[in-house]
Amino acid sequence: METSLRETGLTQPQFAALTMLDAYPEHSSADLARIALLTPQTMSTIMQNLENAALIRRHPHQEHGRKRRIELTDAGRQVLVRAKRLVYALETDLAEGFSEEEQRTVRRWLVAAGGRSLEGGAAKP
After folding, report:
1. What mean pLDDT value characterizes the chain?
2. The domain containing residue 50 runs over which residues?
3. Residue 8's CATH number
4. pTM metric for this prediction
5. How many domains are there within the chain?
């Protein structure tokens, strides 16, 4: 995925963060860190790099003093559209030659493996 995203200038974590912001507009960096299962410090670094690239904009939260709402800029939306096209093309290429049932099996396996990882270990026999 990193190779596919290279022409956009995004890293995979930046792509994930922009995708989350698109799905969950105006959430804070801490909110996005919880959703992505990252530390607030890691997400803060990602957000700072995206802000430096003018792909996001931060605004003070109206109800919470230190909390800042984050939104995509027009440039952020444009780069996200390009990045999604590249990632979807990669997914299509990777799925080529597999039947729908095989693709479903791989997706189920990946979801199960991700769930086990979040639970802190491999499945018991």
Report:
1. 86
2. 2-97
3. 1.10.10.10
4. 0.78
5. 1
